[in-house]
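Sample 3 of the quickstart, ligand adenosine-5'-diphosphate:
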Amino acid sequence: MSLQIEDLSAGYGRLEVLHGVSVNVEAGAIAAIVGANGAGKTTLLGAVSGLLRASAGSVRLGDRDVTRLGAESIAAAGLAHVPENRLVFPTLSLDDNLTLGAWTRRRQRGSKSELATRRAQVLAYFPRLADRLTQPAGTLSGGEQQMLAVGRGLMARPSVLILDEPSLGLAPLVIREIFAALGRLRTDEGLAILLVEQNVRAAFKVADHAYVMDRGRVLMEGEPSTLLADERVQQAYLGGGYVRVSAAETESDRPVRSPAVRVEGDEDRAHEGDRP
Ligand SMILES: Nc1ncnc2c1ncn2[C@@H]1O[C@H](COP(=O)(O)OP(=O)(O)O)[C@@H](O)[C@H]1O
Ligand SMILES: [Mg+2]
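Result:
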């Protein structure tokens, strides 16, 4: 099921933050949205998942217009939102956290055996969670908590997954593991995945399509490799002050499309090119 965001405007009270944003994610594809702090990325996800009311425009899941629905109904329609602070229930076990994820789509929660089947499927994407089922979620590492937050979203068998900066504060290896799982979910389950990130390199590596947001608008969109090579994008990143991009180096194991690029200021060179 695709996610189509068309001309969406939203904000807080009288403050309009999004000014007509259009983003499209096909089933079986990952779209990345990057942009500096305050660009409106989190606001966009809130408006998509029904936490915020859109003032104009539309959100569609497949053929269904969900613009006016509340968060619970949108979740029931097949959207899972993994918010930015990996909100796990710290005193509950990892397993109980997962089980709670299945409840967000109440009517389709299904039988105990269906739940067990789904749990096993989800754990296969994040094998290191499988060894920690009884552990209180609050005692997991940051990376494990993020995996759990994603896994909990997956328990409801969504068709569309939206994630807000899942890599934030995590080590490069763990980021790679999580993004690799997203790549597999895209392929195996045909999920439409919308990934909001400030880690441009990691996000663009896994994404099929990319958007740059700035001050509540989509500034540019295109293939990740094309965007990275674009001078205006480089300017935007430099303006954001968190990443420098230069056309230079060939990444070894990625199918090279258009000009190969390297992101400077990245400590994870050793793992360059591990596209999931
Ligand atoms: N709850 C809120 N109330 C008022 N303004 C907000 C609120 N949340 C975010 N904003 C404003 O909306 C703009 C976009 O914020 P946000 O969507 O969080 O950006 P990003 O996720 O890209 O960093 C910012 O100017 C921010 O100050
Ligand atoms: Mg944000």
